[in-house]
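Researcher: Re-running this chain for the archive, since the previous output was lost when a drive failed. Same request as before.
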Amino acid sequence: MGSPNSDYYKIWETPMHQVTISKPFWMGVYEVTQEQYEAVQVHGHEYLFPGPKNPVERLDWTRVQDFCSRLSMTTGRTVRMPTEAEWEFACRAGTRTRFFFGNEINNLDLYAWGANSGGTTHPVGQLLPNPWGLYDICGNVWEYCSDYFSETYYQNLSSPVIDPQGPVTKDWHGQALKGGAWRMGGDWCRSAARAYDLNLSGGDHGMRVVLEYDSNSMVDKKARLKGGEAAIRCSPNPFNPRITITLSHQQAAINPVLEIYDGNGRLMEIVNAESPANAVYVWNAADHPSGIYIARVSVGGRVLSARLLLVK
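Model: Regenerated structure tokens:
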């Protein structure tokens, strides 16, 4: 996590370093919406941009904590904010680039509501997701993390390398925020960007929740197995001209053939894995025009597919 010394917006993002997330967790596909918030909270809430499908905003850390506590009591499961490390792990989705879709900011408008927002939030899920299927993980509203914010917590590399939780004590910075928001420039939407709430609420402060994985739950076990079997990840997407398509580790031994179709369903190309030992494919679309393509592979009697966007 973090930014290299050669590419940071704020010094507190540095240095880039390796962190291990040792425990599986579920993360919300979308930011918590206003209708979801009102279904759990008993007190009224005023919004800057009302709309049932718009993300909840004008939150402070205490209200987020209260929402998670109430939802935990209702479901009997532990619902919480992600740690900053968990959030960045989920946002990056296996990438090491500035954004989860690559290093260039040009395609940000396809994924995030920031400078393109028109000065307002937008209903969740309208733009493209990251490679792990998380929508609005950048832009729309800042997302609270459970960590207290510190400018130096990661800089001296004294923070834990396994499941860092943030500083023990809170100072004037308040809580950590990640992801950028509707009124922020693109640099704040980078995976490593960090901000803080000054212990205040804000019209661009929202949340995305985490559900702790229960190893004793058959529902969790089946969902994790199904998700692992069906995983097909594409990065960067949009792309030009090369894209890496990866199947989950469960499918690596099967080593199926990947087929590329155009938007009209015509088979354009057959791509073999980079090596027999993995299920990683690289498609070079230099000879194809811009447009939508479909990556398709048959695995164990199931058909997996993903939409690819070639932008030249």
